[in-house]
Protein 1
Amino acid sequence: MKLTLPAQTILLPSPVLIIGTYSPDGKPNIMNAAWGGIASSKPPCISVSLREATLSYHNIKQTEAFTVNIPSEKFLKEADYVGIVSGREHDKFSETGLTAEKSKLVNAPIVKEFPYALECKLIEQIDLGLHTMFIGEILGMVADSEVLNTKQIPDIEKVRPMIFGSFGSMAYYNIGEKLGDAFSIGKEIQQV
Amino acid sequence: MKLTLPAQTILLPSPVLIIGTYSPDGKPNIMNAAWGGIASSKPPCISVSLREATLSYHNIKQTEAFTVNIPSEKFLKEADYVGIVSGREHDKFSETGLTAEKSKLVNAPIVKEFPYALECKLIEQIDLGLHTMFIGEILGMVADSEVLNTKQIPDIEKVRPMIFGSFGSMAYYNIGEKLGDAFSIGKEIQQV
């Protein structure tokens, strides 16, 4: 039975984005954000939406840079932790044992232990209400060689990223089985 | 070994968003988009980025409305198919056997067979280059009662959405195992 329901911000799957920023005095911070996605192919852009209450919001406003770090599933606890506490009271890198390495392209830290990171320069900010959407142009990427395919692209089966199940389950999941090839399996319908 | 690589639009996981629109003469269309995400909690907003080459881009410009339909994994072929062909030459609803039902809130069609859909009114459009980001305010949601939890929120374990593995694998995946509770499992670090 179809039900008509109030508006909900439920997107399945939602990603687990670990946003890396520096404060103006150079202290690195990371936070866990689920509101974001790729925004454009050319130029390559990604968006992430943050509340003004977060330290990361102010860091991005001031440095005009951020990284999007993708944790593999083995960093479950670390990824969740950096979404629970604030960088104002906690040094999240030292508390999680993660290592901040400065991006060579933008003024933002990369999480060394995570499989890959996108290095972003702020190009747009849109105040939508509780959240401000920050759009970053992706200037480069840093990745572990072990997670790349033969074309030097991160392979989801090697990255083993987490999925956020959003408010319906309030839990993280891993990637399951391969279902089929994109831009391919659908052709079976076309041929009917 | 860490490698420094060119910019890539690789976000893992990426969602499988089936965007529903009407042309000005009322013909329903659906397309498969991976570039998008939740943009704001209050007001509830979602973004989707489309190329000007798509029919859906022009439909949204004219109707100022769209739906975001989430397919369950059993609609693998249908979801892929509507990303391969254009609504200019194909009636994608009839060819896939899917049913268009008009949203009661916005001028856009809902895919009846899919577990749930977000009904969106266009509030912002940002030209970024090859893609234009359309930000929609989510006015309501339509969902199958079977995919809801006790709070009337779609549960990822019941929805069984697909994941797009992006350019590294060019394949779709399903949801794997539950890893832990969000805003909870990370507290084990805090207590160390």
Protein 2
Amino acid sequence: MEIPKSHPRYLSLTTREKLVKGVREGLAVLEGLIAHGRGEAFDYILGEKSHDFALEAERAAVALMKLAEHPVISVNGNAASLVAEELVELSKTLNAPLEVNIFHYSKERVEKIAKKLEEFGGTVYYRGDAVLEGIDHARRIVDSRGILKADVVLVPLEDGDRCEILKKHGKKVIAIDLNPLSRTARMADITIVNNITRAIPEMIKFAKEITKEEAKEVLRNYDNKTVLKRAIEAIREHLTKMAEDVMNA
Amino acid sequence: MEIPKSHPRYLSLTTREKLVKGVREGLAVLEGLIAHGRGEAFDYILGEKSHDFALEAERAAVALMKLAEHPVISVNGNAASLVAEELVELSKTLNAPLEVNIFHYSKERVEKIAKKLEEFGGTVYYRGDAVLEGIDHARRIVDSRGILKADVVLVPLEDGDRCEILKKHGKKVIAIDLNPLSRTARMADITIVNNITRAIPEMIKFAKEITKEEAKEVLRNYDNKTVLKRAIEAIREHLTKMAEDVMNA
């Protein structure tokens, strides 16, 4: 259905359509739409912009991947539906291969996501020939060339389980999560509290600029706990402002 | 796919499955899943419970419907997927017919939702033989026996447009919306900031208890602006508490 341009939430609704298209194409699943909605709500109470704490985390994330031996970018159905082309560009800029990893597993969907990334010229691992011990659903399946041997993994839009198991296997984890209170956000080494559609293009820019020397300096000064605290404070401040609008209306 | 019971968000995920089932049955649409996710996020930052301001609004809503001449309960795909049986019970208790009204319109979906409500013994209007002027999408279509002549309409899980047009046509609007900052929440006469799966059963209980005299008293003391303010404050307080947990972890 055509969304009328007069609708006050036109932009938000058309963005949703991107993910709905991803579902129709078999990249994302129905549950992924609900997860996207959760993210939308947090983006809304954050003011729908890239805050300074997000940019700081993005720069630190790029720095960590730049200095890593085997950085890998994990891609699920939502990420592929929203920013496939941008993820490929980030992957190339950082020399970090892409690996398909999905919660609601099907071989067909893995292949569709891989194909979508390959269409943009990405190097994609999806062999699923290894296992991360200690995780009891489909996402234990990984690629021996990718996440299994990775030292740093970027996991956009992931859940707490996934993050936890990667940590247990000694990997540094970078999460993109609009909920600064989530298990993922709290467990990651670097948490980017931002919309993935803004974060990835910003990370590409940082990846093109930053030198290895600068990367070391950035990481020396980075404190993830403070970043999370600032994110929560930003929500509280934005809510206070909005509450004033409600009361003065 | 089976969600493992060990998953920390097992309950939230199984609730999602209800709506996913609604989509598979043709009651809800993909966009409705995203909207549900937005609600989930607000429920989460509200602490996933019925606050005093929600109970107060529910009681006032029941009072308003009890005293109305033609109260109607508007039902969309998400509401039907989550609380069809409960909506029928509320409808019977308050003698307020149900009317199917959906944003992403199809005759087939209207009939499926009506059938689902009728299965539980509900009186359902869905003739679509009248129009609410001033609204430019499918939800302008209403039933001449229902919303067209209603003086009070309960619109669970609706958008701002819908609420606005009902107000313009002189109707009192009761909204159920987990986002206290939304246009719907701010435009409604009574705003229930609560999860529909908790709100409707609570409203049934109130509807069985309240007398007409009590209803008048409840409405005399009700102030929706204060209810919204308390909801926003509850979010801020809950976030502050959660932020402390994050920082002390």
